[in-house]
Amino acid sequence: MKKVEIVGGGIAGLALAGTLDPSQFHVTVYEQRAGLPAVGTTLAMWPEAQEALASLGILGAVRENSPVIRGGALRSAIGVPWLSVEGQNLVGAARHTLLRLLDSAVPSTVQRRIEKLDAVPSDAHLIVAADGVHSMVRRSVWGQSRAAKLTPYLAVRGVIAEEPDSETVGEYWGRGDLFGIGPSSGGTNWYASFRSGMGPEGIDVGEALAVTRRRYAGHSQGIQHVLRVATPETSLAQRIWTTPPLRRYSRGNVVLIGDAAHAMAPNLGRGACESLIDAVALGKLVNTLPLDQALDAYNRQRVLRTQQYRIGSSLMMRVALAEGAQPMRDKLLDLAAKRKSAVNRKPKAPGGSKTSQ
Questions:
Q1: What residues make up the domain containing 140?
Q2: Three-state DSSP class for 131?
Q3: 3-class secondary structure, 242
Q4: pTM (2 decimals)?
Q5: 52, 276 contact by CB (below 8 A)
Q6: Nearest CA among 165, 195, 193 for reference residue 180
């Protein structure tokens, strides 16, 4: 039995523990959190992430406990719709529900240790860093220059018990801020981002919520209603961190997965999905190939893709949270909305195609 040490028992760590073959590996998961979180906002599960959940045997349970995301609209700060976005068979899984179901997929042979490690384990066939954006393993093995980088933005998010009005669902872009409203299991999921000097550690959620209410006081009535109903007990507040690029996610027998490898801005909604895909891909490769070949294949499969998403999410964050360029951005979106409306109003030819001008 070969020893595999997984540092971190979040989404990526649990998914990997549930994928590794218990007949080949003695797996230990180190997690500093004693239990699963009670508060968690909704994570959009894209089709490839759903395939990873299916391979773990929990996709059905995730779907049973999660709403389908059918789309929404990109809107101005006051709620004027610019562009409609159709759903792509996305499932909105609450983070705490997803963690609970991933936990249920972990074999009973996996050893759990509630412990915060200060050093990288050394006596193992494979050491996996699934310890998030502030990964101790990443800093220790790749160096302090590859540690997480703080952005100037605060993320405040939460859930409320009311179902969302279909006319308010979507993402709102203002001057230097954004706000999102979408479905959650039994209610509404919401999130806000804007520039802030709060934190970066130990942010008081009640204070962050009060700051958010003041920030969005002039925004749409739908946003203001959500923030009036929101409570600190069902909300979270964190500064947004990202990680610098890496050309390879493994060194020797140490490998990075999830946010430890490619923590990205939340603007594309891909972070949790890519963590799941990382974990299942790595587990399947390690189950079937010698370790060096498995890690080479993992790097080929995952580095380019996830680094593209990391760059794309950063660019999208800059556009969505634009300040000086916000008027030009809004004019371009207004023009796009008018053009789309004009195309949709064109009369159709008898065969069903639109007439040409």
A1: 2-320
A2: coil
A3: strand
A4: 0.92
A5: yes
A6: 193
